Amino acid sequence: MSYIAPAIQDKFESLSINLKNAILERNVKLYTLQDLIKVLEDIVAEAEK
To answer: 8-31, pLDDT tens digit by residue?
Structure first.
């Protein structure tokens, strides 16, 4: 189950619903903005393949 820390919840909520769903499906734990950026970079990298 994914976890989004309260400190970055507002950043997460500003994303599109499709992007939020893609992140949540990965079962990641996001504690910092850097964690969020990393998972977004991973999604972009996979989309470019």
So the answer is: 999 999 999 999 999 999 999 999
Which residues lie below 8 Å from residue 9, measured CB to CB, with a gap of 6+? none
Instruction: Specify the long-range contacts of residues 6-12, CB closer than 8 Å, at least 24 apart.
Output: 7/31, 7/32, 8/32, 8/33, 8/35, 8/36, 11/36, 12/36
pLDDT of residue 30: 98
DSSP-assigned beta bridge partners for residue 3? 29
- Quick one: how many helices (H) and strands (E) in the chain? 3, 2
